[in-house]
Write a structure and sequence with these properties.
One of its GO terms (biological process) is signal transduction. This is EAL domain-containing protein. One of its GO terms (cellular component) is membrane. It is a single chain. This protein is an alpha/beta fold and about 280 residues long. It has 10 helices and 9 strands. Helix 6 links the parallel strand 6 and strand 7. The longest helix is centred in the N-terminal third of the chain and has 22 residues. It binds ligand C2E and magnesium ion (3 copies).
Amino acid sequence: ESKRAGRGRFTVFDPALDAGIRRRHDTLAALRLGLERRELVVHYQPRIDARSGRIESAEALARWQRPGHGLVPPNDFIELAEASGLIAALGEAVLDQAMSQMARWTQAGLPLKRVSVNVSPRQFESGALPDQVRGALRRHAVDPSCLELEVTESVLSGDVTQVTRQLDGLRALGVTVAMDDFGTGYSSMALLRSLPIDVMKIDRTFVRDLETDPNAVAIAHAIVALGRSLSLRLVAEGIETPGQARLLREMACDEFQGYLFGKPMAAPEFEALFTATERG
Ligand code: C2E
Ligand code: MG
Ligand code: MG
Ligand code: MG
């Protein structure tokens, strides 16, 4: 127990809280070092063209191969990276790996249309994102149309003018922009109207309940209608059952993503799956 109460004050010492803070601190130090040591790996989840049933693109998803901890999922380190500012370097590392992989796949003749990369709202703060993206594309000689960036509605909580300017710059390059997890965040229709995007990803929470909850069907319908009228490409995420896929196909969704078609996987497995479905 702490005896180091400040002058005239009581310090409530909570060992559990202290352990939590220490763990966060240790994890951050390990993550910082891990980035330098290239422990960050990128997995790829297939996105399927709803009409042809073929793999059209892949979403790049970060994992941390942390020594002694196995493969750590992004939900265990992205938030920490965002809070500490490390997300800038992490985001750049993911982008670089994904573009390097896309270049290799293109060279190998794999007819993959694009790779999508998640971008944190904090990556818009410095204003350097368009330059970073242009640099990565150039470095790996990847066509800008082969890159899609996924942003969430939380970008709208930042400097919207700054974000919009950078998204405009990115789209001018030929990069496409997707609104990820649509329907779960701020969902300001006014801001949505002004945001330069090409794709809307219907969040998994609506897809999950499609077969059991009429309200989920109603919301999915409404999102598809909204996206359509804004001329956006519609992607449904988190599809796990053929029934969900059928309902979304009826709504004329453009692309499917979910465990039904494939979990996120390392590049060699993705390549094998892609080749198998192309042949089949
Ligand atoms: P997200 O961008 O919405 O990615 C989709 C998440 O849903 C992935 O989780 C994926 O594995 C999961 N998923 C896909 N299909 C299904 C399904 O059918 N059922 C279920 N239960 N889950 C499914 P993951 O890879 O754990 O990533 C979680 C989140 O972490 C991502 O959500 C994204 O917000 C964030 N993230 C991942 N990589 C990065 C990154 O490089 N940068 C940033 N800023 N965020 C990232
Ligand atoms: Mg995403
Ligand atoms: Mg998502
Ligand atoms: Mg998400």
